[in-house]
Records
---
Amino acid sequence: MPTNSMPTDTAHPLHGLAWDIGVPKPDATIVVDDLVRSFGGLTAVAVEHLEFQRGCITGLIGPNGAGKTTLFNLLTGFDQPNTGQWSFDGRPLGRLKPHQVARLGVVRTFQLTKALSRLTVLENMKLGAQDQKGERFLNALLPGWRTQEREIESRAMELLGRFKLDAKAQDFAGTLSGGQRKLLEMARALMCEPKVVMLDEPMAGVNPALTQSLLEHVKNLREEGMTVIFVEHDMDVVRDISDWVVVMAAGRVIAEGPPESISQNKDVVDAYLGAHHDAPLTVEEEELVLAEAEVAIAAEKAEDADLPTETTRGL
Amino acid sequence: MSELLDILALSVKSFFSQSAVFFALMGVGLNLHFGYTGLLNFGQIAFALLGGYGVAISVAMWGLPLMVGVLIGVVAAFVLALLLGLPTLRLRADYLAIVTIAAAEILRLVFRSTPATPVTGATRGLSNFGGDFYALAPFETQRTYEFLGSTWTGREIWACLIGWILVTLFSLLIWQLMRSPWGRVLKSIREDEDAVRSLGKNVYSYKMQSLILGGIMASFGGMILVLATGSANPDQFQNANTFLAYAALILGGTARVLGPVLGSMLLWFIIAFTDAGLAALIRNGIIPDEILSSPDVANIRFILVGLGLMLLLIFRPQGIFGDRREIVLDAH
């Protein structure tokens, strides 16, 4: 049973696991094997073996173009791989369509929020509920769906209250701010009563004040027994909430382990600093860069000191 | 002054005319496709053609009862929707647009081709299939009636009456559907398909249901048209009519239950009014013959209607019944 404990806690299910790529988890929910997706000559994803622990928050990080979103798309049926298998609770997910994956309880959000602009916030929420009688054409014409609709509405209002969007329930979703849309999308995903929530950059474009409340919401998902997998660029966020971190670069998993292990990993530092300077730096990486810069400056100074003598000599 | 009243009376008749009914029925279906589901159907006329010919061929060529003809028309529209939807609804919206526009042209050209003569009557079309329909009228259809200050034949009244009853029924159906969770899924698909997929809804199936239902509504429009005009002719089903139906829909306001209905009535009112008005102005010498002569009116009226629609879109893009806020959101 997951608790609020930090990964360092001895009670934590992932404590003591080797920090190896593809390490088996004690209670894996999603298992990926030899998953390859290439676009023409570019291999976007090539994951040999990866397991996600049930009831934990797993952070998926990596420089831009590492294949994180493609992996998300593959796991949720929005894209199909060239080869490979992956399963959810032992059930193979290959060739399932997005809505079929969602019905199994694996629900995702999107990097670019997909709020349904010209529907009200409440309607957005109600859409998320599963097994609605009134969503069948013939049933829609009969009043039979109204009882269920009332239940869905009260559940939606309760969730909106938790996400502090209840005052906006009757507004068009298109009038919400970027951060509120992120909240709405997360709340809407919860209407599906998912087992696994996959969040694609939940904090992107959200102001710092809202980030804290979003973080709390993500942690609450774990408290409720859900498995959370999220893609994020902000290292502070990753360190704060993840139980386990998977690092991808150029389509491959290059490291995995508890958050504190990642910044010490040489492959990870290389992946970030080698070719992709646009990714946010960790403190350790920043120190590394600073040290390198200081060496360079010192060398330059030494050169400068040499210069005058050389010029005099030339004259 | 009396001339002005005549023009008005004539224009008022066009509110309820067979053209208004026909475009209202096509428009209600288009509203379901375009306004609610976001499907770009540019060949709505093809569904009307199959409906109209379904009745005409069944009754005139095969000697079947009227009701069987209606059923055949509906089934034909259903099959067309399946054929158009199966390959395209998994793809982006523009693929459906291209396929529907092509299908509408193909169907019209096949129906008017010479080899099709034994079935469709080719360019001459079909007639003499409305007997059963007019026999159903509870009043005398052979004489004329005074109604709203203008003269109507009994046949016109019967065809338009049935047409408007259908419009009412379909509008009620749309109204009920759009209050239901089914309608909510459709509107969500219009906003963002992928979001709806990620929430466990089979988007493909909903788009297909929408295409079929809206197509069947248009097929009834085609039936009313051929029954009211007394003949089924391929050139009644030019695809320009699809775009006129779009004009009516946008004029009234998309994604509003009454948008296409009132839009269609208004469109034909405006067309009839400019037509009669211009003719009167020329007749009284207010517009000199050198500038505009009466034979030109038929062309100039569409130019004026087009101008009016452009002005409407500039100053009231949401249409007459639309919600301004939705247009503002759309710009994001």
Note: Residues 283-314 of chain A form the longest helix (32 residues).
---
Amino acid sequence: MSDQVLIKGARIYGEGDPVDVLVANGVIREIGAAIGSAPDAEVIDAKGQVLLPGFVDLHTHLREPGREDTETIETGSAAAAIGGYTAVFAMANTDPVADNAVIVEHVWRRGREVGLVDVHPVGAVTVGLNGQKLAELGTMAKSAANVRVFSDDGHCVDDPLIMRRALEYSTSLGVVVAQHAEEPRLTVGAQANEGVQASRLGYAGWPASAEESIVARDCILAKHAGARLHICHVSTAGTVDVLRWAKDRGTEVSAEVTPHHLLLTDDRLATYDPVNKVNPPLRTAGDATRLRAALAEGVIDCVATDHAPHAVQDKDCEWAAARPGMLGLQTALSVITETMVRTGLLDWRGVARVMSERPAEIAGLPDQGRPLETGEPANLVLVDPDAEWTVRGAELASVAANTPYEGMRLPGVVTLTLLRGRVTAREGKIG
Amino acid sequence: MKHLLATDGLDPDQARSILDTADELKKTLLGREVRKLPTLRGRTVITMFYENSTRTRVSFEIAGKWMSADVINVSAGGSSVGKGESLRDTALTLAAAGADCVIVRHPASGAAHRLAGWLADAGTSVVNAGDGMHEHPTQALLDAATLRERLGELKGRRVAIVGDVLHSRVARSNIHLLAALGAEVVLVAPPTLLPAGVETLPVTVSHELDAELPAVDAVMMLRVQAERMHGGFFPSAREYSITYGLNEKRLKLLPEHAVVMHPGPMLRGMEIASVVADAPSSAITEQVRNGVHVRMAVLYHLLAGEEDKTA
């Protein structure tokens, strides 16, 4: 493999005339109308496709250590690279939990060995994700893994005092606390979005207020502590209103939305197929519409996949026994193309903002989400905006196959991913 | 008809057809010393109960036996279910062993739907005998059979369903079936025991039992489960009983022809006074009796292979 790559005829951010981009030594060396002389470079004909900065996912479950039967750092990295990602944040709810420097350094090292995507471990906020005692945030932040994001995702840091302390403590480390907003007292036994569908089908309801009340509380706590706060997987219209209010009054809060909450709704529940079970649950069409608008407007900052592999036996069962979560890394760009680009809500520069630049900023990654300019790190993704593909769970790179998009035809195909100038994936395959 | 999973979406003609068959079966068996029909001889019916139940299981078992089916009972405690086998594997095993029909009760909403999906290739019929908070369609059918017996056709009749609608599969099945048969339904319950989106159901809602009783043709009392009493859904059993219980004084507010029903098991003195449960207007034992005929009719429609005009 050549260490130089010449991308011929790409449209940067999907704008203007096609140009050539020469990548060498991990950076963008030259951008020009027609770069002719690069004898050592591998030449890739972009055919007018869209060149964007590599995507950054703030919310991924790679399942290693603990559930390597559903995903490993290697297979998850492959899924990420094929999906156009150059950096992913691996959530802490592994077994054992990533609540100490040993585990986060292991995840970080395995990510480096695999080398397909920058794997940044997320550290747990509390020991064992139990919400009671702060984990050693400082030790993890100062470890080789250089942890920048802390979250008990899967669980809410529901004790207001623990959350207050975590936010206050985080300010000395320059890190961000990411909250899974779910008031557990309001979601005991909950199975699906509380509403017409859940009532008809007999699911115990997961009310929007369980999310919104925690988001409101934490925005107030973060403002009070002078801390940064990130809200995971926003799922309701009411949360959008709370975020807007908090941002207007100067709270340092950012938020993510998943592709599935933008595309899918609780109409999916009628089949009782737990492939549609996810936490927070699929909401109403009205919520999805508001989430799309909020992402376009910037009230919601970015897209995060909440990629959550699960074994067949944990999904091919009765709904209540199934684990929540769905695959997302390889379908994210397509779902965003469908919900945000084809609808005219975002142009490709907007996609770069929500899938690369803002998540990199939120996590404080200096070499990701950078402008497509000479001298910048060559973390790049090439997207064919007109191509379509049919999703097949069995064909995805993940060990698990629990995609809710099975059999769906979606627009937008990642044709090339470069990590620091090296091709990590092309046309749905590694390397 | 291949399965009976819910009354939501059940064709009204299909429902009437089952009720008519139940009436015929009841007439046929009336006064007979040997209550046995050969209709389902050689067919195997398996009941799979993942929740405790006496009345429903016995009712299905008798229904199958009176139709000469071989009825086998599998309970969660007495099979490999207790060893942690998945619902899917248990169902596939029973189908492979030769079940023509599986009757399932399960604490998870949608369990019967999932079974029907897993057993599609095996061709096994599935009857939902109660799934979580979702549906209990044979209970609604036996309630409709009882109401038809007492009141005639249900079109235009008004039925109050009183109590814990939120957690009740009986209420859900009755709401849909009664609406399909043209009856009006009024739900009487505290706001904490009504489902979200109740305004989208074909019902009206009231919190005043006394105001509703004079205008109804039937009142269905729902059981208040013990765990609800400590769940903060209402302040105390006493207050619930005072506000939503059917006592002797309230019985007098009902029109003379009105029918009192309860799916059982009853909490006498809580949601229904003993004297009300045993009054002439009470149809509670008839409900149980009709349950057998309705379940015979359901098995007949699923297994007897007659040309189904509505399917």
Note: The longest strand of chain A covers residues 380-390.
